[in-house]
Structures are given as structure tokens and as C-alpha cells.
Amino acid sequence: MDPISAVSEELAEINGQISDIFRALSNGFQKLEKIKDVNRQSRQLEELTDKMRECKRLIKEFDKEVKNMESRNDPNTNRMLSEKKQSMIKELNSYVAMKKQYQSNLENNKRVDLFDGSNEVYGDDNVLLASSMTNQQLVDKGNQMMDETDQAIDRAKKVVHETINVGTETAATLKAQTEQMSRIVNELDSIHFSIKKASKLVKELGRQVATDRCIMALLFLIVLGVIAIIIVKIVNPQNKDIRDIPGLAPPAMTRRLLWTRH
């Protein structure tokens, strides 16, 4: 069992995190030895530097926790924890020294690359340094930069002009669409008005049809009554309750006079 775990679980957890970082640093520096590209070496060193910062923070946290527990621990435990902290600091300092050595070698390699293979002096972006140029080279370089600036300005103007054209076309399209929407709204209003008017006409026609039906029904009843009277008169002409219908038979007095003459 880890003696630190017997003292404090929190200290054991911090110790475990620091051990993990030390393993990552060891693997990182072994990987750095195999990298040949300068840019990749720089990125690898930055990652290792971040891990060392985190390790330093954890060691400070470990020391703070040890001091808080110092009054509760026996002298042997305090001495063991102090030796553990010193061992952590020593190991971290060894990685810091390795980082400085790699950083120095990396800077030297960059300087060599700057001067290697050419009588002209170039920077990282492959631009001829002004201190090594002649007056004519400076003039030529200035003219070149001015030409590039003019070209960039022309491209910017072209982009602005195209943007204005696109904006104009968009505005025209939006205006046409707005007018079209306005026409559609007007047409919808007209349709709505027509529908209301048609609904009103349908209601009026419905009422008129209902009235006509009532009249037709009344006329039909009258016709039925007349037909019924005619039938009854034909079947039973002696019925006194039903008076003669004008035009169907001659009056009774006329019939008597005709019988009298015979």
C-alpha cells in the first residue's frame, strides 16, 4: 500500500495526478527526439510546457495540503511527505532543464536554417531582410509592395462593386416581391368581398325559392280543392250542400222551364 494513501486520500490523489504527468513528460521527450521537423518540435515543446505548468500547480497544492496536516502527523510522516515533495520538485526541474536544452537547440537550428544554402539573408517568411539589401533592391522591393498594394485595392474595389450590384439586385427583387404580395392581398380582398356578396345572393335566392314554394303549394291545394268539388258534383249531382259551379251546368230554374214546355 502506498504510504501516502495511509496519510490522506486527497494527498494520494494529487500524487497520482503528478505521477501521470511525469509519465506523460517522459514519453513526450522521447517522442521529441524522433521529430525532425522544426515546427512540429515547437508544438511538442509547447504541449510539454503546459504539462509542466500543471505539474507545478499540483506540487504547490500537495505542499499546501501537507502544511495543513503537519500538526496532526508524527515527525516521521512529515519527513516522508517533505522528502516526497522534494523528489517531485527535483524530477520536475529535470524536465524543465531538458525543455530548456531542446528549446536552445531548436533556436540554433532555426538560425542555421536562416543562413543555410544562400548568400542572401531571409527571415521565417522567406522575405529578404532590409539590412542586407542594396538601395536598388530596397527600391525594387518598395515598388513591388506598392504594386501588390494597388492590386489588393483593385480587388477590394471589385468586391465592393460586386457587393453593391448584388445589393441593388436584391433590393429590386425585394421590391418586386413586395408589389406582388400587395397585389395578392388586394386580390384576396376582392375574392373575400365577392364571396360575401355571393353568400348574400344565395341567402336571398333561398328565401325567394322558399316563398315560391309556399305559393306553389297554396295553388296546388286550391287546384286540388276545385278538382275535389268537381268530382263530388259529377258523382252526386243532387247534393244540395254543394252549390253549382258556374259554367258546369245550367241553373235549376232553366231546367224546370224546359220540362214545362214539353
UniProtKB/TrEMBL annotation:
**Gene3D superfamilies associated with the record:** 1.20.5.110
Q: Which CDD domains match?
A: SNARE_SNAP25N_23N_29N_SEC9N
Question: What topology does the record note for this protein and the membrane?
Answer: Single-pass type IV membrane protein
* Start and end residues of each T-SNARE coiled-coil homology domain: 143-205
Q: Cross-referenced InterPro entries, in alphabetical order? A: NPSN/SNAP25-like_N_SNARE, Sec20_C, T_SNARE_dom
Keywords linked to the UniProt accession: Coiled coil, Membrane, Protein transport, Transmembrane, Transmembrane helix, Transport
One GO MF term on file is: SNARE binding
Q: Does the keyword Transport apply?
A: yes
Primary localization class, coarse: membrane
Q: Name one GO biological process term.
A: vesicle fusion
> What is the designated name of this protein?
t-SNARE coiled-coil homology domain-containing protein
Phylogenetic classification of the source organism = Eukaryota, Viridiplantae, Streptophyta, Embryophyta, Tracheophyta
